[in-house]
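Risk mitigation, structural track. In case the binding assays with tryptophanyl-5'AMP fail to produce interpretable data, a predicted complex structure has been prepared as a fallback.
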Amino acid sequence: MENNQTEAKKVIFSGVQPSGLLTIGNYLGAIKNWVSLADEYDCIYCVVDLHSITVRQVPAELRRRIYETLAVYIAAGIDPEKSTLFVQSHNPAHAELGWVLDCHTQFGELSRMTQFKDKSAKHADNINAGLFTYPALMAADILLYQTDLVPVGLDQKQHIELARDIAVRFNGIYGDTFKVPEGFIPQTGAKIASLSDPTRKMSKSDPNANGYVAILDKKDDIIRKFKRAVTDSEAVVRFAEGKDGINNLMNIYSCFTGKTHAEIEAEFAGKGYGDFKMAVGETVADKLAPIQAEFNRLMADKAYLESIMKQGAEVAAYRSKKTMRKVYKKLGFVQV
Ligand code: TYM
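Fallback model:
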């Protein structure tokens, strides 16, 4: 029944690391678009827990965040009956294909990954091999499901390009094995900046909580963070070079309201930054409120979340088996 239909649709794969409180950057850059694509595509959305241990985690917190991340996906509007939702470590094929792709990825390619350079500077005491080879695991996540499209924020563009390069290389050596995926990066919202330093991206691992707005932040905190957001001294709400702080707030407001930059400029013509920041804060808090309510309901029902994880892992394992058999056969491994 469903299966024939889903097979005809193009496949989407994406994931978020359960390594911190999800921010409106994760929401606007990725999850919000996942929701809008869910009806048209055959979607697989993963909580990528294997990725998060490239940085040291507190086990009890990581466990809680895996549930939370899944709950955010559903609360944001992804229907687990229509899309496959699962936890990466529940399908061992990711680690298996990750190893195979490690052996087909060059040291030089991985050395050029800007996220590796940033993260190794930030965690100088723990530059582990997993942090280095992480993009090959990400390629495995994507290629395992013969994915067509990968909706992500701009910071993942380089990793997607590497996944494409690996797929093309593998296909070139062994014959057609993997679909070569495309990135899907939104026009607005692909790079939400930190509120305290708008030249940097908003990040869930930022030690300064004023820099990010978490999807689960309370209304008062959201408004306070926007009030404090770093802007400039021009006091005119317009989108222009050199106005990183205002540009960022305009992007956020645009994503949540659907208004264009020109419409936002007109709305706030003759008004100060105080009014604008207040409007952005109020809007973001109001748009997040229903997601938060649904999140709280879901978190009170762990058994339900576990049933989704189980059901999703079965589907994911079933679907990836076909690719793994093909890969092992092409490599020359014996299949009995
Ligand atoms: P992660 O967990 O850092 O981020 C999850 C998603 O959120 C996007 N994002 C942002 N978008 C706009 N502005 C921001 N400030 C911002 N911060 C984060 C990211 O681009 C991403 O889409 N390696 C990935 C997770 C991953 C994955 C995959 C993604 C693992 N395997 C396979 C797609 C396909 C990561 O660390 O994302």
